[in-house]
UniProtKB/TrEMBL annotation:
<feature type="domain" description="N-acetyltransferase">
    <location>
        <begin position="30"/>
        <end position="177"/>
    </location>
</feature>
<keyword id="KW-0808">Transferase</keyword>
<dbReference type="InterPro" id="IPR016181">
    <property type="entry name" value="Acyl_CoA_acyltransferase"/>
</dbReference>
<dbReference type="GO" id="GO:0016747">
    <property type="term" value="F:acyltransferase activity, transferring groups other than amino-acyl groups"/>
</dbReference>
<protein>
    <submittedName>
        <fullName>Acetyltransferase, GNAT family</fullName>
    </submittedName>
</protein>
<dbReference type="InterPro" id="IPR000182">
    <property type="entry name" value="GNAT_dom"/>
</dbReference>
<dbReference type="Pfam" id="PF00583">
    <property type="entry name" value="Acetyltransf_1"/>
</dbReference>
Length: 177
């Protein structure tokens, strides 16, 4: 599990939709908003497209991912974000997560974070994370938690964006079948 440093910036974003021009590339004219159930089909399509490709190569079905995403959205602590191209409204990125109470304050647990294939490697993931941080600070949520496989390119991406390993932590699972 990787843990972000506490978010210390106190800037206000002013509205629920954030717009930003990041960098020199045209594609970085982006806006972010929270996901709604109206986004479900588009989220499922993009989830499958990203995680069926390299380096994951997962075997995914529409019913399987529809159930996963709709179950996440049904949680009363769910917060999901979508990053879109401001000009075309094309979906560029997604974050699916939930708020976890903790004795030291609330934490945003990222279950899925993705940038669509053609937009990867252009700085949009870092821009998206910054926009999410701004929104979380507005909501007084100072910490982001997530996990990823150390051997995946995502691990380097998260480290580059300030995430740090939790000392003395390891992930375990127990299969009940």
């Amino acid at each position: 599990m990787i843990h972000a440093q506490k978010l210390v910036d106190s800037s206000s974003i002013g509205s629920t939709e954030i717009e930003r021009e990041a960098g020199d590339r045209m594609e970085k004219n982006v806006s972010m908003r929270e996901l709604t159930t109206a986004d479900l089909a588009e989220v499922v399509d993009h989830y499958i497209a990203v995680f069926s490709a390299e380096p994951w190569n997962d075997q995914l079905t529409v019913p399987q991912i529809t159930d996963y995403v709709s179950s996440m959205m049904a949680m009363n602590t769910f917060i999901g974000y979508r990053l879109t191209n401001r000009a075309s409204n094309e979906l560029i990125g997604l974050s699916l997560g939930f708020i976890k109470p903790w004795y030291q304050g609330k934490e945003y647990v990222v279950d899925t974070f993705l940038i669509t294939g053609t937009h990867q490697g252009k700085g949009l993931g870092s821009t998206f994370l910054e926009m999410i941080k701004e929104d979380l600070l507005k909501k007084e949520i100072p910490t982001i938690l997530l996990d990823t496989e150390e051997s995946m390119p995502a691990a380097d991406f998260y480290k580059k964006n300030g995430f740090k390993p939790l000392p003395d932590n390891v992930s375990y699972y127990l299969s009940l079948d």
